[in-house]
Amino acid sequence: MVYLTRVEHFNAAHKLYNPNWSKEQNELVFGKCANEHWHGHNYELYVTVKGRPDPDTGFVCDVKALSKIINQYVIEQLDHKNLNMDVPFMKDQLCSTENLAIAIWKQLQPQLPVGVQLHGIKLYETPRIFVEYYGE
Amino acid sequence: MSKKVAVYRKEHFNAAHRLYNPAWDMAKNDAVFGKCNNPNFHGHNYEVVVKVTGVPDPETGYVMDMKILSDLIRDHVLEQFDHKNLNLDTLHFKTLNPTAENICVVIYELLRAQIAPQLDLQVRLYETERNFVEYPA
Q1: Distance in angstroms (rounded) separating the CA atoms of residues B133 and A122
Q2: CATH code linked to domain A2-133
């Protein structure tokens, strides 16, 4: 089994805000991330797939095809967007990096070519903060 | 020989912004600023590198106390910009488009007022890892 990773990036605005809580409770839990007018990040996305290299091509997955899938189903939906307001697949969800990684997994998994398995999503919110999701 | 030395302090802040010229219609803003004109904003992890140049003080060996420089950047730049919407939450960009160029000039001016005049100042601002600007040029 070989693991293949494609790195992409997008820039987006968001805020951390639970609509079921008061403004005070949100500020207590989320601090400055609850700023009502948003803030933003340069996100770095690592998508790892796994499989056995095809005997005819030597590829686990055609990386050009993988890049197109990530761009169409994830990057175009997120890049230069407001994650809370502009992204249908994040609607009614808290826009934490954790939830975003799970949502990206759900977007990508049904789109992958036959024989290619999604292994993991690694998502950097800042150079020093990242999450990983393995579909568990 | 003057033995000038440059010292650098690197900081970062995260902010939302939108590039938009209110004197233009939406079509022209879209044509010029593209997806940066998203009405609901987008955002970046900004990295700011502050360069101070001068002759080390004979008594301390410092061009400038880095702790003081760090505090100045925190108090005059980061507290205004970090986790903010540059268009909506700061006074500086009420009428000025928050491009990397303009943000860099504003940061320079905020710090220039706080740093001894005999020291040279230059600010480099990274909007993304691959897009950065510098002032003075």
Answers
A1: 29
A2: 3.30.479.10
